[in-house]
């Protein structure tokens, strides 16, 4: 790995993620585009949006074919910060070979328009795919390979249904084809916490509920047994800390909008049977939020899907924390036949 050098004008110390990224230092900066200037975006809820601001990262030289990364619920477009095992020379997303694009989703709070700019929004994952399509048009991209995990995996399914003409192949990691009552129930409890205690306290509880679904009993037994502070269970202070961390970097309106979009994405089996392109679906052995059997059953609804399982004790977030052989699997699949 080659360390990147920062332009002289910037004197902040490099973050670890920046040191590890061996591509063009200019790729580390987010870009913005204002889309839907001449014709509005018609949302599934019936509202029309014009001049939609989208913040995104690209890695590598611009090409007509791209690899589009779809981030998770509280993730963002800075792939180099949260997926270093996947992005870089010799990795599945290789900027020396590929044009990699990742945009912050509509409805989020990382630079793309969301509730903070637009007010309360009833959004769908298909709306987000349409915004992504407009961004690809803006960049001159005509074909994409799509890869997403968690909410990004659900969004990958939305791309397959909404933009079948653009998608060449797709990787779905740790995501079902639609939310189960269990997943909707967890999000409903999180939203109830936000509505019961607006202004921050509710968002912190929402994150605590969600974190439990992102880990597993075995993972917490391995990492959070005992106490850090006398008289306080380690897992209790861990969850409190995770709530504080999310409050510092996220927005409760976005949490409501994005979890609502995930819950309302309920494609029919017959729609999924029309997806013709090759799809690699990855389940996670200890995932409590989206159990591997459910993810596998979703893959079986697609005519041209392969299923692989990541073996980890760390639950849903293993794709971030304990990726094991996943990068190699993804790379082999993205290369194509
Ligand atoms: C496809 C996508 O888009 S994914 C998007 C990626 N998402 C993000 O990057 C944002 C969300 N982040 C995460 O979800 C998590 O940080 C993960 C999954 C990346 C990593 O999870 P973890 O290994 O639990 O690490 P996490 O950073 O959450 O927790 C460790 C922190 O908790 C603290 N901590 C650990 N145990 C305790 C405890 N018992 N009490 C208090 N604090 C604790 C650690 O000191 C550490 O603090 P720091 O963050 O200030 O360094
Ligand atoms: N840790 C992920 C969870 C969903 O994968 C996030 O916060 O977005």
TrEMBL record:
Subcellular localization: Cytoplasm
Catalysed conversion reaction: L-homoserine + acetyl-CoA = O-acetyl-L-homoserine + CoA
Domain of life where this protein originates: Bacteria
Coiled-coil segments: none
Keywords of this entry: Acyltransferase, Amino-acid biosynthesis, Cytoplasm, Methionine biosynthesis, Transferase
Domain AB hydrolase-1: 68-320
Enzyme class: transferase
Major subcellular site: cytoplasm
Pfam families named in the record: Abhydrolase_1
Entry's EC annotation: 2.3.1.31
Binding site for substrate: 207, 317
Amino-acid biosynthesis among keywords: yes
InterPro entries named in the record: AB_hydrolase_1, AB_hydrolase_fold, HAT_MetX-like
Pathways involved: Amino-acid biosynthesis; L-methionine biosynthesis via de novo pathway; O-acetyl-L-homoserine from L-homoserine: step 1/1
Active-site residues from the entry: 150, 287, 316
Function according to Swiss-Prot or TrEMBL: Transfers an acetyl group from acetyl-CoA to L-homoserine, forming acetyl-L-homoserine.
Summary of subunit composition and partner proteins: Homodimer.
PANTHER family hit by this protein: HOMOSERINE O-ACETYLTRANSFERASE (PTHR32268:SF11)
Family: Belongs to the AB hydrolase superfamily. MetX family.
UniProt-recorded name of the protein: Homoserine O-acetyltransferase
Organism: Deinococcus aerophilus
Lineage, broadest ranks: Bacteria, Thermotogati, Deinococcota, Deinococci, Deinococcales
């Amino acid at each position: 790995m080659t360390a990147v050098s920062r332009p002289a004008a910037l004197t902040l110390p490099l973050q670890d993620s920046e040191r590890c990224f061996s591509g063009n230092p200019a790729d580390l900066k987010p870009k913005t585009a204002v889309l839907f200037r001449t014709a509005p975006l018609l949302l599934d809820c019936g509202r029309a949006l014009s001049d939609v601001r989208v913040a995104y990262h690209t890695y590598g030289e611009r090409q007509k074919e791209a690899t589009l990364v779809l981030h998770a619920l509280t993730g963002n477009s800075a792939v180099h910060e949260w997926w270093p095992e996947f992005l870089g020379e010799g990795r599945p997303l290789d900027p020396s070979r590929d044009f990699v694009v990742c945009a912050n989703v509509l409805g989020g709070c990382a630079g793309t328009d969301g509730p903070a700019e637009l007010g309360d929004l009833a959004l769908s994952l298909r709306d987000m795919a349409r915004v992504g399509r407009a961004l690809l048009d803006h960049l001159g991209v005509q074909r994409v390979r799509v890869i997403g995990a968690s909410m990004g995996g659900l969004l990958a399914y939305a791309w397959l249904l909404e933009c079948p003409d653009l998608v060449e192949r797709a990787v779905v990691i740790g995501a079902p084809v639609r939310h189960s009552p269990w997943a909707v129930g967890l999000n409903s409890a999180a939203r109830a916490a936000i509505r019961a205690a607006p202004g921050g306290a509710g968002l912190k509880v929402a994150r605590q509920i969600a974190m439990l679904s992102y880990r597993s009993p075995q993972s917490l037994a391995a990492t959070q047994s005992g106490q850090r502070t006398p008289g306080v269970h380690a897992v209790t202070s861990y969850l409190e800390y995770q709530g504080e961390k999310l409050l510092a970097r996220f927005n409760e309106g976005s949490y409501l909008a994005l979890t609502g979009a995930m819950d309302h994405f309920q494609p029919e089996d017959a729609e999924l049977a029309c997806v013709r392109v090759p799809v690699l679906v990855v389940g996670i052995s200890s995932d409590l939020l989206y159990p591997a059997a459910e993810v596998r059953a979703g893959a079986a609804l697609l005519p041209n899907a392969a299923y692989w399982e990541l073996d980890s004790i760390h639950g849903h977030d293993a794709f971030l924390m304990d990726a094991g052989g996943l990068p190699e699997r993804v790379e082999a699949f993205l290369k194509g036949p």
